[in-house]
Design a protein that fits this description.
mainly alpha; 76% helix
């Protein structure tokens, strides 16, 4: 009993340390700027949510006016690449679950920017709980707490976990997905299909996580 309480205490300390350090890392930039972080990408994500609400089939006049010029041949390779990039940003919806969450937050009164910031602000909590669950399932509560304590002060290079994007949120879903499969020893008839669907809908990266989970769970 004492050993279990010590393990649970270590886990609680690790989770709290993660939330404190990562919360500051994410929260300070959010509080000190009016625009959403990574504004160039942020407004692309917001655009897809607006489309989901007002032009679901992408057949409204504004988008139809854009479609032709963006698909027309360009005079150079660089021009072709720029048009392709603009087309993907306007039309390709590769993160519908993320767009739906943004839309849900906007529908209850948040502005689009506030909705985007709310998702970013929730990042430390989502990552912390997901990693705590995954680590506990595979290595135990004490080890999970120590790992989170160490990870809390790490800033991963490139697109670290302080960038709360559909790519990283796929990792949150994957951690819970894999943890659930392992905890139930594969006896997850509902988790397998629903989890895989959520991963695929969050971001194309989720396809890799979903395949890995299905491969282990079946």
């Amino acid at each position: 009993m004492l050993e279990r309480r010590v393990a649970q205490s270590l886990l609680a300390v690790g989770v709290l340390a993660w939330l404190a350090v990562q919360g500051v890392l994410v929260g300070v930039p959010l509080r000190e700027r009016a625009a959403p972080p990574e504004a160039d990408d942020a407004y692309v994500y917001i655009l897809k949510s607006v489309q989901m609400a007002s032009c679901f089939f992408q057949d409204c006049p504004a988008l139809e006016d854009l479609r032709g010029p963006l698909k027309a041949p360009a005079p150079s390779v660089e021009g072709t690449w720029q048009r392709y990039r603009a087309y993907t940003r306007c039309f390709l919806v590769y993160h519908p679950l993320y767009s739906a969450v943004l839309l849900a937050l906007h529908s209850v009164g948040a502005s689009w920017e506030q909705a985007y910031k709310l998702i970013w602000a929730s990042g430390p909590l989502l990552f912390g709980l997901a990693f705590a669950y995954w680590l506990t399932v595979f290595w135990g509560a004490a080890q999970a707490g120590l790992a989170l304590l160490w990870l809390s002060v790490q800033v991963f290079p490139g697109q670290g976990l302080h960038y709360v994007t559909p790519t990283n949120l796929s990792l949150v879903l994957a951690a819970v997905y894999w943890g659930r499969i392992a905890a139930a020893r594969g006896a997850v008839p509902w988790t397998l299909p629903l989890g895989a669907l959520a991963l695929v809908a969050m971001h194309p990266t989720g396809r890799i996580y979903a395949v890995a989970g299905v491969a282990v769970g079946v």
